[in-house]
């Protein structure tokens, strides 16, 4: 079936339609088991529509279609320039429909229409264009061994890749996965999060319109335990790329190990530090630290959730940081109200999870410096929350909350804060605020994190590699590095 929604809001007026089926072999089809999954508006808790949910049977059908497409019309059979042209055409279509996509993304995730448009849809478009540019620039090397012999390398696609994505930035994650995979000549079975499937379904329609051969991109919605598990176990899939929780990442790695040893790349969780030294520009530090933990209602894998402040600026920082949290609370609202700066958590499950961490912080004796309660009575809103008087063994300091909840810790010395910042099983990102360039670089080098940000936060550049140290992941996305993770290298030996 089709879902059609008439938006008549202060920020967006228009009609948006999406096909609700599974997108397999260039067609929208019903799942074999006819399962449906409800999609909820998190600002109200009300059902938006129901989408088709796939199972192992549908994944199998999709893998067969993808294999055929790979052999007949994709891989290195299609010149890189042609693959790049199709990716650019897809980007053009997203650009033409940017308002519709932003409206759908906002409705489904709870982020505002303005943010969805400026950050999410725009970010997805940039990603498709960036990798479109790489599509005809993937090539190997010649290695001279002796006068009589040489070798060369070929960077070959894997073939069918499985891609499993989360709900916090649905269309951005889709682009981070599809764009490099297609640019390097792979075909994909992509599974969106069952919580936020709508923009992916809209993109599926544009895949056909752009002119990709049927079966090159298959978008199969479904639960993680069904369609997701089936992707990680399928013998016809050579690589799985996953973004989501560390717990699910372990399951996927295990399923890959026990099936066909498919290559696995993982982008997982974090508990990233934000470190503010006495010599920081305080206004900037407050601005970025707040953005770092409250943007997207804290549902960001690189969120700066542990905020370390040097003793000289601790009081001044805390006062200004608290003011931001209180302001955001007053600016809470729905996706389509122009003044909204703070939205709901994405789902009731996520709301419960965040509230339970807040409860645990209180029970363990931390001080609630701001927030700490549910916000309003409709939907899944949580007050922007700041905890102080925390100790390093508390759950709210150790575990990823994935909500608008920051813990603030005081420190004295650089050595002490480096040790405390690294005292986590995660290693996704770190943020450092100082005016001293030597200190910034020294601390950056000492931190165990895949990305560090000096005097900024949550900046994402398509050209810069992204991924985790420690239990935050395996492999890198974005930049030239992404081409390596979507190709396998063949060494070819020639005897003259
Ligand atoms: P999740 O792990 O529950 O789900 C992510 C995806 O995996 C969904 O599509 C889900 O259906 C699927 N899935 C669930 N169980 C599965 C299984 N057994 N086999 C295969 N697939 C399965 O995570 P979430 O709750 O959607 O997202 C929040 C988490 O994701 C947070 O921990 C966050 O840090 C992390 N995250 C990381 C990044 C990153 O780039 N590192 C980005 C966004 C989110």
UniProtKB/TrEMBL annotation:
Superkingdom of the organism of origin: Eukaryota
Record's protein name: Aldehyde dehydrogenase
